[in-house]
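tokens incoming
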């Protein structure tokens, strides 16, 4: 009996404002691990992201590094809460937020966290439908807050996601495997064929 085939892909795409996203996603028996790096229009590294989900697509860990510091979040406990901290040059800021399987986590306008959200609680919205979902949002300077996001599934591969209070928004385009794509995007196997 052969082992199940797991998806292992990498890609790159241009973000609004001339930023560039390079990412990888490796799927295994414990879920998916996403890694991503964002470079600014000037070519300098701006952010590094690591997100892990379990086989059901639920968040298990997020780490986001930028010039503002290092942010770590993970769900734990009963009742379930999203715990973590931000390590900054001036100290450590502990974080705790309400969390449930119906929540989504958005790192600003990141296509990676949006793709995870589209496969999670937002996925119940059929094409042409939309709804509001509870979320935890990571903004500029690693500011974290509870928020409500509006998610609309505008076509088979397109999603429109925006913070309900007028915060960040994004248009997400996913391929058949749930990976981010769109104009000026490319994907390739994570490993070379042997």
């Amino acid at each position: 009996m052969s082992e199940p085939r797991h998806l292992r892909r990498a890609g790159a795409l241009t973000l609004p404002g001339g930023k560039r996203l390079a990412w990888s996603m490796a799927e295994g028996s414990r879920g998916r691990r996403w890694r991503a790096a964002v470079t600014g229009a000037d070519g300098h590294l701006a952010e590094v992201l690591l997100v892990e989900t379990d086989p059901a697509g639920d968040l298990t860990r997020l780490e986001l590094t930028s010039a503002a510091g290092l942010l770590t979040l993970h769900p734990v406990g009963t009742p379930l809460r999203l715990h973590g901290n931000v390590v900054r040059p001036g100290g450590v800021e502990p974080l705790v937020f309400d969390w449930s399987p119906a929540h989504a986590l958005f790192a600003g306008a990141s296509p990676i966290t949006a793709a995870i959200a589209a496969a999670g609680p937002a996925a119940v919205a059929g094409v042409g439908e939309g709804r509001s979902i509870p979320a935890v949002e990571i903004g500029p300077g690693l500011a974290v807050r509870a928020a409500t996001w509006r998610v609309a599934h505008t076509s088979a591969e397109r999603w429109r996601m925006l913070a309900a209070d007028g915060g960040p928004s994004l248009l997400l385009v996913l391929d058949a495997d749930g990976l981010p794509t769109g104009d000026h995007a490319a994907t390739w196997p994570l490993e070379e064929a042997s």
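note: The two ends are 21 Å apart (CA to CA).
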